[in-house]
Design a protein that fits this description.
The complex is a heterotrimer of chains A (314), B (507) and C (349). Chain A is mainly alpha-helical and 314 residues long. Chain A contains 13 helices and 2 strands; from the N terminus they run αααααβαβααααααα. Chain A is globular, with a radius of gyration of 20 Å. Helices cover 33% and strands 26% of the residues of chain B. Chain B has 3 domains: 235 residues, Rossmann fold (3-Layer(aba) Sandwich); 160 residues, P-loop containing nucleotide triphosphate hydrolases (Rossmann fold, 3-Layer(aba) Sandwich); 78 residues, no CATH class. In chain B, strands 13, 16, 19, 20, 21, 22 and 23 form a 7-stranded mixed sheet that branches. By secondary structure, chain B is of the alpha/beta class. Chain C has 349 residues and is an all-alpha fold. Chain C has one domain: ABC transporter involved in vitamin B12 uptake, BtuC (Orthogonal Bundle), CATH 1.10.3470. Chain C contains 13 helices and 2 strands; from the N terminus they run βαααααααααααααβ. In chain C, α4 packs across α11, α7 runs antiparallel to α12 and α8 crosses α10. The chains are: A mainly alpha (314), B alpha/beta (507), C mainly alpha (349). Chains in contact: A-B, A-C, B-C. Chains A and C meet through α5, α11 and α13 of A and α6, α11 and α13 of C.
Chain lengths: 314, 507, 349
Amino acid sequence: MNALVDILASAGLWAAVLRIATPLILGTLGALLCERSGVLNLGIEGIMTFGAMIGWLAVYNGADLWTGLLVAALAGGVFGFLHAVLTVTLGLSQHVSGLGVTLFASSFSYYVFRLMVPVAGTPPTVEPFQPIAIPGLSDLPFFGPAFFNQTPPTYLAILIAILMAYIILRTPLGLAIRMAGENPHAAEAQGINPMAVRYGAVIAGSALMAVGGAFLTLSAFNSFFPTMVQGRGWICIALVVFASWRPERALLGALLFAFFDGFQLRLQTALNGAVPYQIFLMIPYVLSIAALAVMARRARVPQALMQPYRRGER
Amino acid sequence: MSEAVLEISGVSKRFGTNLANDNISLSLGKGEIVALLGENGAGKTTLMSILFGHYMPDSGHVRVMGQDLPPGKPRAAIRAGIGMVHQHFSLAPNLTVLENVMTGTESLWSVASNTGPGRAKLMAISERFGLKVNPDARLGDLSVGEQQRVEILKALYNDARILVLDEPTAVLTNIEAEKLFSTLKDMARQGLSLIFISHKLDEVMATADRVVVLRGGKLVAERKAAETSKAELAELMVGRAVKRPVREASTPGETVLEAVGVTVRVDDVDRLKAIDFHLRAGEVLGIIGVSGNGQTLLAQLLSGTAKRTSGDLVLFGHGVGDLSVADAVHAGIGRIPEDRNKEGAIGEMAIWENAVLERLSGYSRHGLVDRKSAIDFAGRIISAFDVRGGSPTSRIRLLSGGNMQKLILGRNLIEHPRILVAAQPARGLDEGAVAAVHERILEARRAGCAVLLISEDLEEVMALADRIQAIVGGRLSPPVKAEDVDTRRLGLMMAGEWEQEGVAHAV
Amino acid sequence: MRFERREHRPAALVIATPILAVVAALAVAGLLIALAGAPVLTAYWKILTGAFGSRLSTTETLTRAAPLMLTGLAAAIAFRARLWNIGAEGQFYLGAIAVAATSSHVLAGLPSAVQIPLLFVVGAAAGMVLLLVPLWLRLRFSVDEVVTTLLLNFVAILFVSMLIDGVLKDPTAFGWPQSVGIDSAAKLPKLLARSRLHIGLIIAIGLAFAIHFVQSRTVFGLQSRAAGLNPTGAVFAGVPLARTLVIVAMMSGGLAGLAGAIEVMGVKGYVTTDLSPGYGYSGIVVAMLANLNPLGVVLAALFTAIMFVGADGMSRSLGIPTYIADVTVALSLISMLIAVFFTQYRIRR
């Protein structure tokens, strides 16, 4: 019991929660944006992988860290464009197209990485983002080190979440995105081109996913290795359902999820091998499945999700 | 006629080999109501889609208030003051009324939605035309009539001067429809111009100033409503005098199917409430009602795809509990589904597969499909029921609506079922096909089949049914003899007013 | 520009589709090879000789094709009924570990003729169980099975990792995490001496024909196809939707589990966490390339195996990362999707 309390009371846990949450926040927001416009983007796992690789590679080749994030975002947008061509223009199965994008983006990441970085004993590293203490707030006891001493992308992710909630729920653009995902025919009848809206949402959403991936190699860690995304993309897809397609709940969901993850990591250390570590590693995936089971029927699914829109066809 | 606010001149549109609009010209005056009359496939919807910018015309042009309207741009149409009220509402159930109305009315790049002024404008319009709504209600929680109000408000919110309504009464009761038409006339008095698309002669005669008739993509006639008659319009619309068959007198046999206090609950709501009916051999029992009142579930219950919550079904004198599809087919219940594309056919499968899918036990041995006899069966249906446009091995999707319906009728009727459950059997078919379907149903009746006809078409029920019950909000009225009622009385029944009238005529 | 549905699909076009798709994918891959500074045609030639250049490489390609056929069939069967089983990778591992555990701890000592069929059943059953969980979640809670099957892949592999690091750990492997070996009587007979090629290939091809027969000739085949194409229509016609999906899931999960079983019994003899080079995921591509046709799966699996084995050889001599094989296979999935689209639609202006 004492061990539990110690873990919960340590500022380190809470600092780790925000760190673990950052790629999930970005990935979930990206997936959410796509889905709100009516497109399921299962390319996320591969797009995050590619973002992680290309962002790192840019920095490794001399770019600064922010340029690395930007490069990742652009690359993510390109894969988003590919997914949009397949699912919006051609109206193909969003499931299969997304898996195709994931398979392509991840294998292409490994290919490019291997081509550019020769095999070495220890993986090459870059100098990652350093934590920035927010003046004033970071001096608060407990809360300071727990929440206000993070790397810049973490602050950025939270800012984007707030911005996204505002855009989707309070602006005409957000209304257009929602309408494209609820009833594209109605959007068209009101003079909005739902295909253009979907293209925009999928490209922007994919860019966010890639930035989430790049956080892994440019902030959480400092090197790239294959399979490092480890299903985070799929977890984000589950989190979108858990959040009932609302950005503010996506932020909370990602934080909650990261809390469990950070907690289990520390519990694992505290228990010191009494329970196989694989059990702990399973927890995020099992939690995601449980979250889906609880929320799938309650959540208000965008009505036109996964339905291709063809002009004049009903 | 006052000055023209809308002029359509020489519009043509071709889809593949089908000329949907052939050199159509028409004009609309300020404050005028024009009815666009025609059968399914006559080109009404295509013409309106061109007007609204959904389609590009191959030739011809549209002028609004003397200005050329750029083709293929819905936005331009909206800006020119054209508003469209679609038959299938263009609304999002998950969004609020205000959000539905305001979509697309502001620049996409403005930093905040102006919901305050938007709400005020919506309320002002709703006040002016007597179209009451709650702007913050979730659209999906509204009734169909209220949703239509939102659809109209949406057009008015965009400052529409010309309102196009596509089959606006398809989903309304007579009473709601009458109210709608008085609203429309009021709008015309206030200077709006209206086009409404319909194939119902009564409402066209009652509401329009002028009637434009389309047939086969051509404009065939234009009449002042005051100077024409229903009979003339009917013939203009169909192009020849097609007579729908009418039932002849007969004596029904014994009761074959009976429902006693059957209730069906879906998602904790009673969708069918303690319904009673009995159906006799050799008669047609019509169940009339506006869609959305439980007839879908009634059809499913009798087709074996929905389960009772309480009450009894009695089939040939024996209580049967719940019917499964296999039970129903085995017991000789023929089933015509409400939606032939979704329920009645699997588009990508062959005609023969669609013919035998629901009766596979008769066309298989040891789990293996007897392809030869199944194809043979499909072939017999095709020739006996005059199904055109496909062979047993071609995909059923390639059939026209009428021919697909003939195939569905055929697979049920060819083996002489004792009961036929027909849900909206003529919906969306053209006159010729309607007559053919009706003839088949009456033929089955003559052969002693008991027919339960679920329909929202008054004319159809009056022509075919011996007895009629109305379905309203999941309840069934007592039956009345077809001879004893007129359309007005049926209209009242469809609005749920049968208690007051008393059940003196009940049989 | 708009797309218009084709009323009739020329048979020649349907057959040519996968070939065109593969050619397109190879062309793009060629571009990537060229960008890496290697001679493209030489690279293609090296892939071909790497896959078929010698007796060893030929048998290696065929050995690789067997599990791909099974995971490809697993995906094809499921997708046809619109059951999105993306969990073949996890089902593969569960099948493999179940076989290793049962053979070493339960059936050890029994003769091959008894043990091998029993182990097939055990492996298939393990795969089935893993797919029935997401199917239950879908039927009971409406949870999309795509995400749950994907997530379960990670759970399954961690579970296997736990076992081979724990109760099933091989004590003689110098601390290396690998499972105990299967009983020697559980080894699959070889098709060719002095090679790794085993009867798994024959089994996979046999199953492809059997499934083709079931799908095209039986009541169940007709019903499951109807359920996939139009669930509402299938229900109206009396197809028991849930039961059909359960049977489809058992076949699909069973095939993926069986793939894991034959890989352990035919090739490795024990389980590690790198037993599968993504057979489960490649199976999806195989199924799509085959247009979900079971006989097509055999050919598509062969193509995929050629790419993987051939790229190994090519990579060694030209210094192109072996990942080019994964890239090509993924690209062929995308180009196949596009190609299939154009057999169904034509462009109209």
